[in-house]
Amino acid sequence: MLDTIDVNKTLPRKKYVTQLGKYQVRMRELEFRIFEERMPVVICFEGWDAAGKGGAIKRLTQFLDPRGYSVIPIAAPSGDEKKHHYLWRFWKQLPKAGHISIFDRTWYGRVLVERVEGFCDESAWKRAYREINEFEQQLTSYGTVMCKFWLHISKEEQLRRFKEREGNEFKNWKLTSEDWRNREKWDVYEAAVDEMLERTSTTYAPWTVVEAVDKCYARVKVLRTVVEAIEKAL
What is the DSSP string of 40-107? Predict the structure, then answer.
């Protein structure tokens, strides 16, 4: 599936500035509307390392009232999280009515990193597709607006960004040995992503693949998609 995506879509800088401002202002207006309507919003970000998730989240929240949203960075489970079903820690972070929760990495780790790295057995990650679909159906049936993004770049672009980070003293903290190790398993991860998109993109919680080589294009597409989803729900 990913092979069919043209990751090199671009947006001229002048149009980017205009459209970014337009959608950021509209996003702020909608933040107050969903609060009035008591409508929860869940926004999920997955993607390749260095694909630009942090930059997209920053632009998405730049004009928002900080009382109305939370950004939840997800790392490996620890402590009590290991003693519960893997979805337990995500249930705890879901937004209350009228608020927005933005997940930087999500429950899809079950069918991505946990699958590829062998952190769970095959029967567990295969079962997870149904569990995740049912989890998301419960949320959307309740009235939650859900947007799911996969930020997609080429293997060559990832290498370029890794090297750029490596040589930048303000960015090299982002690059770890784990990033390089994951890169060596690109093909295995790509197969897992393809299956994830195919089996968990539903009518109630569809995936949006974001062509993210051009960061300007990617950020505007994310904002526009969220705005349109909330407007439709309202």
Answer: -EEEEEEESTTSSHHHHHHHHHTTS-GGGEEEEE--S--GGGGGS-TTHHHHTTPPPTT-EEEEES-G
